[in-house]
Amino acid sequence: MINKAKQILKETFGYDAFRSLQKEVIQNVLNKHDTLCIMPTGGGKSLCYQIPALLFEGLTIVVSPLISLMDDQVKQLEAYGIQAVMLNSSLSAASYQENVQLIRQNKVRLLYLAPETLLMEKTLELLASQKVACFTIDEAHCISEWGHDFRPEYRQLAHLRTRFPESVCLALTATATDRVQQDIQKSLQFEASSSFVASFNRENLFLEIKQKSQPAQQTLNFLDKFPDQSGIIYCQSRKQVDEMADFLEDEGYSVKPYHAGLSAEVRQQNQLSFISDDTQIMVATIAFGMGINKPNVRFILHFDMPNNIESYYQQIGRAGRDGLRAECLFLFSYGDIRKIKFFIQQKLPAEQVIASTQLNALVGLAETEACRRIPLLKYFGEDYSKAKCGMCDNCLTEHEPAIDVTIPAQQFLSCIKHTGEIFGAGHMIDILRGSKSQKVLKFGHQKLSTYGIGKHLSKAQWFYLSRQFVQKGLLTQDMQHGSLKLTAKAWAVLRGEQSTSAKLEEQQVAPTLPQAEQKYDSSLFQILRQLRKTMADKLKVPPYVIFPDKTLIEMAIYFPHSEAVMMQLHGVGAVKYAKYGLPFIEAITAYCETNHLSEKLKRKPAGKLSPARKIGKLRHQVIGEKYNAGASVNELKAEFGSQTKTILDHLYKYCGTGELLRLSDDFIELSQLSPKKQDAVSALFNKHGTLALRPVFDALEQKVSYEELKLLRLHFLCQKGNNDAT
Asked: Which residues pair with 281 in a beta bridge?
């Protein structure tokens, strides 16, 4: 079965090899073993149930928490030629019944449902009449009370095990600590051996955490790095979302807001605008993002602090799902901590313990001076073996040696002591720098001995020092009120018994080199991007449903003129090529003719060579030699498991190496054109040459297909080559 799964992976989805743990999970599901799969966002979780769904006899149920997520998945599967439907409240009564009928007629391979819909008696009655092969529970962390997005209705899914005992169950999530994993397995009655946990490390995400100082300007500086690129800005409140969206719109950015205070219709319109590439930036609360699979999100900005590491990880996971580099900036402030702490206090006592533990872990991630991935991955139970990842701000900062700051430390600590240890860093800095703010004057702090003695340092330098004093254990900070308090270490520094060192300036992150896959023809990429957008708008699907950016980038590297080369590219399977491939080949061919560029062969990675390469020959050489040895096109199709078009492309490539093909009527016999029309095509090849098919296609008023032209081009080359040789 796994060999059939590999065939589907390539021919349907256009991928050459499985990603980490995909093969093992798919094999386990195909063996009808209940499976828990923990795989990072963008790691390929969907294929773990979509491929088995195409191999099982029966229906695969996919439980998903959001309508937008279901809609996105169904559209993508339809683009691959896979029968998938959903049942939810977004459908009209007619569409709902139409989908029910398709299910009853056994014409559906995958059915997407919300847990509430699935648990309805009428849905269970419908499914009872079907052979349900697999239950897939997406976002399975919602089952656990220790999960960051617990939903009580998810707990009830366990009852389905008794109603459908023959169905295998697959639980999927991107964010689950050890405790959450155990909770999921216990709830669903899984065996521990059925758990597969991929690495949580998203290597293509650049992680950066900065102190929030001038947030509006910091936001603009960050956005300047991503012209015409898609990204998400997360804010804590609806008010902040609206203000940020208005601010960016005034600055000339393409931006939409998204939060629960907007009507369902507006939210849906804004989300559609974003996934359709009509809007560049979405400013949102945490309500946004779970329901999209947009692969070309190039940046995530946390303008406000997320509630916990799970939320942070899930939200940054919405970037770079195509595997290309994406950047994640988190603006960190102790003021945000106080806001989150306030909301935690509104929870039940047991929930407060969980939320406070999660918040403290996030603060630790923000304050660490080590590689960001070490505490991040450790939180999910994974040890990061490298000292430096090379893809976070701490690893790329040009570290300078710390200097002795004992005197500034004594000044800062003394100021805290004389004000009663009830104020935060901002007020201390105002006193040290001699501010005449209302708060300083109200408490008479202009009369303190420390008033104005710190003017030699800037406000930013004092803030940077204060954070280091906390990290070094000289101070503790009350998370509720933000007040700073002295520790035993602080008293040792104050009394002159101990010195301390730190850095005065927050260092800038060193620039990183672009990824190798980004070295592509940017002009062609923009042409292809516009073509994709036009096609997507016409078909009313998101652009990435046609081809993701990674595929367009490979097109702009290899310049495919033929199906054979196009089918080598990432994400191009037989169904997608048949639906969308030809317009892209035409655009690429025209661009290459204008700019004198030629098609390139995509080399397979070492260790993944095809059988033809293993014996030292390319596939087109093997096929060309077999044809010359007497094999027909149909025999070659059967031997190599390829379509006619693919065999013809290989034979044409063989001719391109200077080799001749044997004389035969093979190509003429496969042609559907009349002899007169065949002669007319040959005359046009004699006039325009055989390098590009477009001139001949246009000369024939676009009434003869490219497949026919490929057949007759090979016949023409055979005749011409053998005549020239005699």
From this structure: 231, 255
